[in-house]
Design brief:
By secondary structure, the chain is α+β, with helices and mostly antiparallel strands. The protein has helices at 3-25, 27-36, 43-63, 68-72, and strands at residues 85-96, 108-119, 124-136, 141-157, 160-173, 184-197, 202-214, 225-237. It has one domain (70-237): Porin. The radius of gyration is 19 Å and the shape is elongated. The model is unreliable at 37-51 (pLDDT under 50).
């Protein structure tokens, strides 16, 4: 096994471990989601599927590491075509900022995200992102959010690419926080991503995102949440 493959395996082992712990800790929020959509008799089955889906997907990626031949035939981002699709999984860590100054509480949180994207041109992608987070604040809290994302590759060098993205969507908090008067809020995000191809159809990513969440003045208080999130991810292109 080459040095790169060893590092690749270690990278995924860390992601799998962190994601499994995160999904287990998010069980109360998953129960709320399942109950809310009106499913009763199969609640436990669906809950188990939701908790394990991301974990086993990452585990499969760890087991099927690319061969030396695959590494020599890596994906080239300058050859992506319109209509090409992407599925990606990210896990990350974030902290909120004391911006604006009225923000009373600082907290950290873990996140997990799955992306379904489609390139509308060789450098422009439109994606649906489904995310979940666990907040470590004065009271343990959880959140789920769904966003539409526009991503553009602006610096491409063969198997390496840098992109920026903008997202807008809805975020639901399990419990209200002091800076927001509602559990359901709007979220806007700006991000920057570095990608490196690891095979003919796969790539690893390092991503930074700036998050904003507020309720648009629907109910006071509406101080909002501003946060930074750093994530690592794995993508499949097809």
């Amino acid at each position: 096994m080459s040095y790169f493959q060893k590092m690749h395996k270690l990278f995924f082992a860390q992601i799998v471990y962190k994601t499994q712990n995160f999904l287990i800790s998010s069980e109360p929020l998953l129960r709320i989601i399942v109950a809310h959509i009106g499913i009763s008799k199969i609640n436990e089955v669906i809950l188990l599927m939701l908790k394990q889906y991301l974990f086993f997907t990452l585990l499969a990626a760890l087991l099927f590491l690319p061969s030396e031949h695959a590494l020599s035939q890596r994906l080239r981002f300058d050859e992506i075509e319109a209509g090409q699709k992407e599925i990606a999984i990210f896990v990350g860590y974030g902290e909120n900022h004391r911006i604006p100054h009225a923000t009373k509480e600082l907290f950290s949180f873990d996140t997990a995200k799955i992306r379904f994207g489609r390139f509308v041109s060789p450098k422009n992608e439109v994606a649906l992102d489904i995310s979940a987070g666990k907040l470590d604040a004065s009271q343990i809290n959880s959140a789920v959010w769904v966003t539409m994302t526009f991503r553009q590759l602006f610096l491409v060098r063969g198997s390496t690419a840098i992109s920026w993205d903008a997202s807008f969507g809805i975020m639901y908090l399990q419990k209200r926080v002091s800076s927001l008067g509602t559990k359901t809020n709007f979220t806007e995000q700006l991000g920057l991503t570095l990608q490196y191809a690891t095979g003919p159809t796969t790539a690893i990513s390092i991503e930074y995102k700036f998050y904003h969440a507020s309720n648009g003045g629907i109910k006071l208080p509406n101080i909002g949440i501003n946060a930074s999130v750093a994530s690592a991810g794995y993508s499949w292109y097809f």
